[in-house]
Specification:
The chain has eleven helices and six strands. It has about 230 residues and is an alpha/beta fold. Helix 8 links the parallel strand 3 and strand 4.
Length: about 230
Amino acid sequence: MTPERLLVALADGGAHSGEALARDFGVTRAAVWKQIAKLADWGLVVDAVPGVGYRLDRRIDLLDAVALRAALSPEVARRLASPDVFTALDVRARRARPNADLSALPDAASRASLVRSMLAKLGNLCAIVDDVWDEASARTLMSAIPPGCPILITTRDGDLAKTLRCRVERIDALNEDEAIALLAKLLGPLDGYEPAAREIASAPDYASRTTRRLPGGLPCSTTSNKP
């Protein structure tokens, strides 16, 4: 459950009981209250009416991404949906093979297949897909990772993480030591790889589209899922 999803539920301006919201989202009523507090922090007025429930002080018309995409022509929708994924796959390919050119491949799936075979030649790989927000894009980027390689995904959408069948670790912003501890928890002892892992964790472009090779030949591929 996120404040954004709660806002969608309350956007009609009607009253919604805490019990019903907790049941619909599969959380406790205390968790609902915490998200209500976050909406208040955003400047929204949420009235808590005893015996009735929560409601916004007015109806809010939210932009619906699904409805907007449905109104686009297929060509426009394709162009809007593809660039980030195409760019991420191109960057991965060039890191594996500097002169790689995927422009002849017409779609993301075929590019991901080729990138997967290229990355497989690098040996053991830890892939990080940063700031995932779209399931289709995430699945395409994940399909470009060779089988058996661990994938670390960051997202602000816990429901999306579950949809992708990830093991979910809820975290706040991490400092360098905390980031190293999380990597060790997910991947096992870093041993001789820790100095290079610290370089990655502290780099200003950590969330950028890049691939770094750790000592001992273990590459770490990081890909951003946003512009």
